[in-house]
């Protein structure tokens, strides 16, 4: 799997202790960072420089990342696990499970503005984002309404994983 470039672990708002305040320092700045800071603050968590760098990494990656890929840039493993867990609890990121049962992480769709599904290679275990056509999304919405009607379950979202072999593994 190709290495993902990792942003530096310091960022705007970093103090000498490597942490940023619970408030966003992006006054009039990046809405993603402001939303992340707000969600973390609602859980009494701080938006540290490492968490900010992790959000930047997830935004830039273009696909879900494993913890191994996250730490490739030098972050301690324990810190990466702790920070990605807190980001998931705050609704900033979400965890996916691929064909190999490894957790992969990406920004929450409501923050990324990128509704998508996933292609999972059963051979190399790569997970890639794929946008669904409007016709497929309409069909999924109709299927969700039918499932809700038949089960009494309230459907609030959907996620699709298509499993097969990537071009490199065919």
Structural account:
With 170 residues, the chain is of the alpha+beta class. The protein has helices at 31-42, 49-61, 67-71, 77-89, 109-112, 134-151, and strands at residues 65-66, 93-97, 103-107, 117-121, 127-130, 161-164. The chain folds into 2 domains: 1-114, Orthogonal Bundle (Arc Repressor Mutant, subunit A), CATH 1.10.10; 115-170, 2-Layer Sandwich (Dna Ligase, domain 1). 38% of the residues lie in helices and 15% in strands. The strands form 2 sheets. A 3-stranded antiparallel β-sheet has the order 1-3-2. The relative contact order is 0.13.
Subunit organisation of the chains: single chain
> Helices and strands: which structural class?
alpha+beta
Class of the largest domain, according to the CATH hierarchy? Answer: Mainly Alpha
Average predicted confidence as pLDDT: 81
Tally the helices: what do you get?
6
Low-confidence stretches: 1-27
* SSE succession: HHEHHEEHEEHE
CATH topology of the largest domain: Arc Repressor Mutant, subunit A
Overall 3D geometry?
globular
**Overall radius of gyration:** 18 Å
Number-wise, the strands total: 6
Task: Walk me through the topology.
Elements: H1 31-42, H2 49-61, E1 65-66, H3 67-71, H4 77-89, E2 93-97, E3 103-107, H5 109-112, E4 117-121, E5 127-130, H6 134-151, E6 161-164
Parallel strand pairs: 4-6
Antiparallel strand pairs: 1-3, 2-3, 4-5
State the gist of this model:
The chain has 6 helices and 6 strands. By secondary structure, the protein is of the alpha+beta class.
């Amino acid at each position: 799997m190709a290495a993902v470039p990792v942003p530096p672990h310091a960022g705007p708002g970093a103090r000498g202790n490597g942490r940023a305040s619970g408030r966003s320092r992006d006054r009039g700045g990046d809405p993603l960072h402001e939303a992340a800071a707000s969600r973390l603050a609602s859980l009494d968590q701080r938006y540290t420089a490492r968490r900010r760098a992790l959000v930047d990494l997830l935004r830039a990656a273009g696909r879900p990342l494993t913890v191994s890929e996250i730490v490739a840039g030098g972050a301690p493993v324990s810190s990466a696990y702790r920070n990605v867990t807190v980001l998931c609890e705050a609704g900033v990121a979400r965890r996916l499970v691929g064909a190999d049962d490894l957790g992969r992480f990406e920004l929450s769709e409501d923050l990324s503005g990128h509704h998508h599904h996933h292609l999972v290679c059963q051979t190399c275990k790569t997970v890639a984002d794929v946008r669904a056509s409007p016709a497929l999304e309409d069909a999924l919405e109709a299927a969700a309404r039918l499932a809700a009607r038949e089960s009494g379950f309230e459907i609030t979202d959907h996620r699709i994983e298509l499993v097969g072999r990537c071009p490199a593994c065919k």
